[in-house]
Design a protein that fits this description.
Blueprint lengths: L3 H6 L6 E7 H17 L3 E7 L8 H13 L7 E6 L1 H13 L5 E6 L2 H7 L4 E6 L2 E8 L4 E2 L11 H17 L3 H5 L5 H18 L14 H10 L6 H18 L7 H11 L10 H8 L5 E2 L2 E9 L2 E8 H11 L4
Parallel strand pairs: 1-2, 1-3, 3-4, 4-7
Antiparallel strand pairs: 5-6, 8-9, 9-10
Bound molecules: nicotinamide-adenine-dinucleotide.
Nicotinamide-adenine-dinucleotide binds next to helix 2, helix 4, helix 5, strand 6 and helix 6.
Amino acid sequence: MAKAGRLAAGVRRPGRAVIVTDSNVDLLYSDKLAASLREAGFDAVKFVFPAGEKSKNASTLLSLLNFMAESRLTRIDTVFALGGGVVGDLAGLAASLYMRGVGLVQLPTTLLAAVDSSVGGKTAVDLPAGKNLMGAFYQPDLVICDTDTLGTLPEAEFSNGCAEVIKYGFIRDAAILNMLGNRPVDEIISRCVAIKRDIVTADEHDRGERQLLNFGHTFGHAIETCSGYTIPHGSAVAAGMVIMTTAAIKKGLCDAGSLGLLKSALRACGLSVEVHYTYAELFDTILSDKKRSSDRIKLVIPRRVGLCELIEVSLNEAREFLRLGLGGT
Ligand SMILES: NC(=O)c1ccc[n+]([C@@H]2O[C@H](COP(=O)([O-])OP(=O)(O)OC[C@H]3O[C@@H](n4cnc5c(N)ncnc54)[C@H](O)[C@@H]3O)[C@@H](O)[C@H]2O)c1
């Protein structure tokens, strides 16, 4: 964190800096970041909102945009998103909207944000009808990942990040599953970010290959939404991956051993995958999913560990996947 100001000054002219963070991360790291920014010549102000997914909404977004205007931010100024995926998604969207775009530096402080949300330029807030329905593609000028910040992350939040790490193992690199628990976290983060970099470089606007990164997310987002965002994103994605893998095996599309490998990797990371919603409740939410177009929806199907495929199915077929994945026969 001490180097953040110097690194940022390498890509952004030191001007006004708005540090956006949540109520937990604020107490831990915003003073350190502000000091580093001031040392590098930035004039830092701070916007803090209550921690948690429930704050990732249009009302917090509007408050942040008003704060940026009251702080007299101009187009040469920079937003610093200090926190997990909630902070990064919200601050990123505000940076894309304010004066049609100001500078953006992402400083992820959760494992999930480090391996996934801080990279690739997807920004969004939730609407009552579903996750991430108001958003934009907006690339950060810089991502500064200080892995020392993960030292204060509660264990359950670390586990949530592991769900996205396991996702990378399933879609591209089976060896990642063996690294969990055995390798330094820096190495795991670099490997995941390299996969995301390659996929996003090939398909920045999510029209093809990038959608593979949604493995577990279609059903995962439905679980998150049904829970009123009390189930964290990582845990919901973990359950979504199990549902999809179970269904794919029952349909003869996936190698039968994959489910055992997935479940043992999730268990080793302390992730439980119990789902307390009926398939009718979950399916109703899926009708608002961004991955749906008209009466078709794209699903990410595992073929085996390390290889996933994108298929487009009718809504009826998607319902059948969900039914089978939740234990139907
Ligand atoms: N944009 C993308 O490509 C993308 C990808 C994956 C997920 N996401 C989004 O990311 C969000 C989930 O992110 P998350 O899991 O980081 O949740 P989060 O941002 O809510 O952070 C989880 C909790 O950890 C706390 N925290 C953060 N850093 C900490 C630290 N270093 N020490 C102590 N506590 C800390 C936070 O205050 C919060 O309570 C979801 O909204 C999801 O939709 C976006």
